Amino acid sequence: MALAGVCGARRACKDERGSAMHNFKENMIKRFFMLNGLLSIVILLGIFYLLLSRSLPALQEVGLKNFFAPGYWKPTAFATPQYSMLNLIRGTFMVGAGSLLFAVPLGVACATYLAEVAGSREREVLKPIIEILAGIPSVVLGFFGLVVLSPIIAQIFGLNSGINALNGSILVGIMALPTIVSLAEDAISAVPQSYRHASLALGATRWQTILRVILPAALSGIIAASMLGMGRAVGETMTVLMATGNALAKPGSFFDSVRTLSANIAIEMGEVPMGSIHYHSLFFVGLVLFIITFVINLLADIIFQRYREEF
Amino acid sequence: MTIINSHLEQKPVPEEEKVKLISIDTAKGKQKDDLSAKNKTKEVKVKVNNFSFYYGDKQALQNINMEITTNEVTALIGPSGCGKTTFLRTINRMNDLIPGTRVEGEVIVSGQNIYQPAVDVVELRRKVGLVFQQPNPFPKSIYENVAYGPKIHGKRKKEVLDEIVEESLKQAALWDEVKDRLKESGLSLSGGQQQRLCIARVLAVKPEIILMDEPTSALDPVATQRIEDLIRELSADYTIIIVTHNMQQAARISDFTAFFLLGELVECGRTAQIFTRPGDTRTEEYITGRFG
Fold first, then answer.
1. Candidates B97, B124, B152; nearest CB to A204
2. Which of A72, A96, B55, B212 could link B131 by a cystine bridge, Cβ 3.0 to 4.6 Å?
3. Which of B136, B164, B168, B206 should we substitute to test contact with A (largest number of A Cβ atoms within 10 Å)?
């Protein structure tokens, strides 16, 4: 009896010490994870700071206005170097928009099929395959564009070369496809079953239900998915570098060769004299690219949030 | 034992209002009206013959035989899991959406067995509307919610749609509350209004039969009463079949009551009779609250 009492007391004491230890550990773990969370913010701000500080000399020398003035990107011209990014921005948005034109209809159709039409077995096979698409190295895709796609494009449209904005758009579209498909499929699957039943019970066909109820209900999710796909497309470098031809001229159509902001940095960074205005202006190009993708992702996020609240 | 429509000899009991409504409709002279009203109540809208329903191997409905009368309210009552909702949904084949289900026997709606392979399910569901337990308006405007049905059935003209929307909302006793905000989302309405919107949405496709699956179970008493009044009004023009957990509700609004138990139709007859002189002891036990 007495022994049991002592034992109990000792155990209580141990528990107390144990719980203090436990609390400490719990706290440490909490801090560890918080630190990790903070780290990503620090990195983001750090990159922003780096880009800004490195591009400041160029901004001072060239002037912000001249980066967006009509003209060309000719930083190495002997007499009068030009730093106009307009054609680069045009090229970037052409490839971005082109890839969306290609990837959004295809991606939404694919997502609709997966979410609404396919049986569970087809879905089990198809989903991983589409996700593997995201795993193809961009350089491999660029190679594919160079060797396979560009001759096909040249032949179909009767061009001298198929290395142009269209080629880049299709390839980047392929890269954006998995993002769009998987997010759009989530959005479509999240549409409450009651909408489907309500529509079918009114005598709608499955097709009418998909087109008039489900897709409109999932619209904001689909838009957000497309924007995230676009964010991916705009920042994509290696594929466009290999497939679009990188001409600095003002692109007139999708059959012209274009150079994107990202490709421009990759091409020139290797041979630019460090510390030159050219060097610093490449950082400014990076900053502009960063801001564009940041804004697109932010918008996508806002749309997605609103969409989450709807259901 | 299954009793089929032993109500036929029974006189309608709480029917004064109803006869009035019908007589306004037909307007042929007072003496004849009563006669035609009575004849009308005897028309069979839905006839169910030896009907069984299976979810996979599990039998949910056993050999149901039943007749449902035109332009009357038929209430389906019974404890949870007795098959009343399953039965309701077989009448517009909404159970087709559940994989692995199987039927035996016939369900004859307006003279046609709806489980024949040649039946157009889309057309059937236009004729047999369904109001769900939870109000489920589309995330569209009030107007678009009601116009949805007519639109998918090929009505495009704005004037025609406007008219249908107004008429349906009036029939559903919602028009006065929403006529100034037709462009607002259907989801912005209160629960009771949403349910009336769903009823208006069903009315807009001009069905012959309206199925209701516990339409008031998610609503407060005031909203419930509005829906109940509405059901009484609609029964002048529509055959209404309603599943309800609430026995008082069945007693208040229905002309006929069918009692289901363990997938079997125990008894079906005039509501007044079922609630006062049930033919089966199980019905009596359920109604008096001895189980359920």
1. B152
2. B212
3. B136
The C-alpha atoms of residue B65 and residue B107 are separated, in whole angstroms, by 9
Q: Distance (Å, rounded) from C-alpha B256 to C-alpha B41? A: 11
Domain contains A67: no
Closest partner CB to B138 (pick from A198, A200, A203): A198
Same domain, A43 and A113: no
Contact B139 A216 (CB under 8 A): yes
- Kindly state the greatest CA–CA separation across chain A: 101
Q: Are residues A99 and A244 in the same domain?
A: yes
Contacts of B132 in chain A (CB under 8 A): 194, 197-198, 201
Is-above-0.80 flag for pTM?
no
CB pairs under 8 A between A and B: 65
Contacts of A212 in chain B (CB under 8 A): 148, 151-152
pLDDT tens-digit profile of B234-258? 999 999 999 998 888 999 999 999 9
- Count of domains observed in chain A: 2
Q: What percent of chain A has pLDDT over 90?
A: 54
Q: Is A55 found in the same domain as A199? A: no
Domains, in order of start, for chain B: 6-19+44-134+208-287 (3.40.50.300)
Q: Distance of CA B91 to CAs A249, A297, B74, B109, B222, Å? A: 68, 49, 13, 8, 30
Contact A257/A245 with Cβ under 8 angstroms? yes
Other CB atoms within 10 Å distance of the CB of residue A239: 30
Q: Give how far B26 is from chain A: nearest CA, Å.
A: 29
Q: Both A286 and A186 in a single domain?
A: yes
Report the range of poorest mean pLDDT among B35-49, B110-124, B169-183, B269-283.
B35-49
Enclosing domain of residue A194 = 73-310
- Residue of B92, B138, B153 with shortest CB distance to A213: B138
Q: Cα Rg for chain B, rounded, in angstroms?
A: 19
Q: Provide ipTM, 2 decimals.
A: 0.80
CB contact under 8 A, B122 and A205: yes
Here the CATH number for the domain that contains residue A233 is 1.10.3720.10
Residue B208: pLDDT band (50, 70, 90) is very high
Say yes or no: A258 and A154 in one domain. Answer: yes
Average pLDDT, chain B: 85
